[in-house]
UniProtKB/TrEMBL annotation, chain A:
It comes from Geodermatophilus nigrescens. This is Uncharacterized conserved protein, AIM24 family.
TrEMBL record, chain B:
Residues 1-86 are annotated as: Disordered. It comes from Geodermatophilus nigrescens. Residues 39-58 have a biased composition (Pro residues). This is Uncharacterized conserved protein, AIM24 family. It comes from the Bacteria. InterPro entries: AIM24, AIM24_sf, Trp_RNA-bd_attenuator-like_dom. Pfam families: AIM24. Gene3D superfamilies: Mitochondrial biogenesis AIM24. Transmembrane segments: none annotated.
Length: 214, 323
């Protein structure tokens, strides 16, 4: 059912008739067994749905993996982190960080602008644009990161995260962008840490060990 | 096919013909074997090297990344290495390999990081005019320009793009590997161009070093691999190309490009059958391999003039589309 970690950059999915998998196109490394791949257009039918996906650029070309067999997934040598979603709070991350997930999970596009201007700015800063993807349901998700993602547990505390190092989060969390732009930043002599994501609440934040995207 | 059946690289090799318990499992231990002292004479050519028939180094049965350095320095502090403490024909860390050079090795241009001792690097093309055996060993005119011969005595450190490096011991076997991932091979091995473009085949008995993006994954046929993720294969017949019919019929664009002989890469896999081992890596960002252009160009001799003209037009159109 879920993904099995082969090494830090590759996961193996056991695909059967009852457990198809949705994966990023071009992420299949190889397979054994009777497995077929089918291009999937558009994302979930959640808020925003197809229109949102088309508008936002938050639609990543995906493919369905069906049949019976074992499939290896990996993408451009990026590190892969497997997350288990318990059906509670959705996983919030960018669509192009999704390597593969169980096909019974729903994805939807969320407009950050509805959370006010601050949310929209934070989206722009994290490179997420004004939209982000929510993954709902119970199942496994394989998430891509540069350098590997580590979880930070939050129980009411607050954590500051570099926007470029932010991968995603699960739980009841609020994400705010804190900007401390002083004179030194304007003249290009800032610390490089003028923008931070202030994340607080209850849940888990995933941070990658790099400020490079892909 | 003279090697012992079911065991391509000699006795005790973990990725032989036997089914493996999970192919993510590494073949052996890079730091585990005690290093022979530097003062000890390196094995003469023609004799089996010390690691011969033993598992090639791999990663994972011990903590390789950030694991204890080989020389027993305090953990977290890398040991300062010198010619004596550098390993003989073994990994310094997952990304750097040290060759104890005594004689000649073939090396990919740009793979050298550093060296101790007296080592000369000559282009294979030049060296083969001095030493006739080189031309016999390196029978690939397409790749010969990208290779050098390292000659002399000393410790030679090699690396490739920060990828994981693995040494493989061939025992009267054959292994085909992606040309851009092959870093070095000992002069006992013979290199030939594979039928599959971009791959070369190593034949004989000896050691070679290849890079991979992430640890190498070993699988057995029947298996279908994405061309970008395929690192190589040993002992199986050369792959055939499998086209996913379902993908092509369900995807209009795929159908059109399929009819035009183009492929987006999604529906096309290399299909392996028979007995052997397939080496996979996480798909890498393709490095431009200058030899591929030479390879394809040499193939265009098959075309008639009219065909060559229309191919030229398509290529021009493609180049313009991308810019």
């Amino acid at each position: 059912m879920s993904f099995e970690t082969v090494n830090s950059k590759v996961v193996r999915a056991h695909v059967s008739a009852s457990t198809p998998v949705l994966a990023r196109r071009g992420a299949m490394l190889g397979y054994s067994g009777q497995v077929t791949f089918r291009p999937v257009h558009g994302q979930g039918r959640g808020i925003g749905g197809m229109v949102g996906a088309a508008m936002s650029g938050e639609s990543n070309a995906m493919m369905a993996t069906e049949g019976t067999g074992q499939v290896l997934y990996g993408y451009k040598g990026l590190h892969v982190t497997v997350l288990e979603l318990d059906g509670g709070a959705p996983l919030v991350c960018e669509a192009d960080r999704l390597l593969a997930h169980d096909a019974n999970l729903q994805t939807s596009v969320q407009f950050l602008g509805s959370g006010g201007m601050k949310q929209a700015i934070s989206g722009a800063m994290t490179g997420q644009g004004l939209f982000t993807t929510n993954v709902h349901g119970r199942g496994s998700v394989a998430v891509l990161s540069h350098g590997g993602a580590f979880p930070l547990q939050l129980n009411g505390q607050q954590v500051g995260v570099d926007p470029q190092a932010y991968v995603g989060h699960v739980g009841q969390l609020s994400v705010d962008l804190a900007a401390k732009v002083g004179f030194r930043d304007v003249v290009g002599r800032g610390s490089g840490e003028a923008f931070q994501l202030r994340i607080s609440g209850h849940g888990t934040v995933y941070v990658q060990a790099s400020e490079q995207k892909f | 096919m003279t090697y012992p059946p079911g065991n391509p690289y000699g006795g005790g090799n973990p990725y032989g013909g036997q089914p493996q318990p999970g192919y993510g499992q590494p073949p052996g231990n890079p730091y585990g074997q005690p290093q022979p002292g530097y003062g000890q004479p390196p094995p003469g050519y023609g004799q089996p090297p010390p690691g011969y028939g033993q598992p090639p180094p791999g990663y994972g049965q011990q903590p390789p990344y950030g694991g204890p350095p080989p020389q027993g320095a305090p953990s977290g502090v890398p040991a300062t290495l010198n010619p004596q403490s550098l390993p003989d024909d073994d990994n310094v860390n997952p990304y750097v390999f040290c060759i104890a050079l005594n004689g000649e090795w073939f090396m990919s241009k740009g793979a050298m990081l550093a060296y101790y001792g007296n080592i000369q690097f000559d282009a294979v093309t030049e060296y083969s005019s001095v030493q006739a055996w080189v031309a016999n060993r390196f029978s690939s005119p397409v790749y010969i320009q990208d290779w050098v011969v390292a000659q002399g005595h000393g410790k030679l450190l090699i690396g490739d793009r920060g990828f994981d490096l693995n040494a493989y011991d061939l025992d009267d076997g054959n292994l085909t590997i992606k040309a851009s991932n092959l870093c070095a091979f000992s002069k006992q091995l013979e290199l030939k161009q594979s039928i599959v473009p971009g791959f070369v085949t190593l034949i004989g008995t000896g050691k070679f070093i290849a890079s991979s993006n992430g640890p190498v994954i070993f699988v057995e046929p029947p298996f279908r691999a994405d061309p970008d993720a395929l690192l190589g294969w040993a002992d199986c017949p050369s792959p055939s190309v499998h086209h996913d019919a379902q993908w092509m019929t369900q995807n209009i664009r795929g159908m059109i490009s399929g009819a035009l002989g183009r492929a987006s890469g999604e529906e096309r896999q290399y299909d392996f059958t028979g007995q052997g081992t397939i080496l996979l890596q996480s798909s890498e960002i393709a490095r431009e391999d200058p030899a591929v252009l030479r390879l394809v160009e040499s193939q265009t001799q098959l075309l008639t003039n009219a065909q060559a003209g229309s191919l030229g037009q398509r290529l021009v159109a493609r180049a313009q589309q991308q810019h």
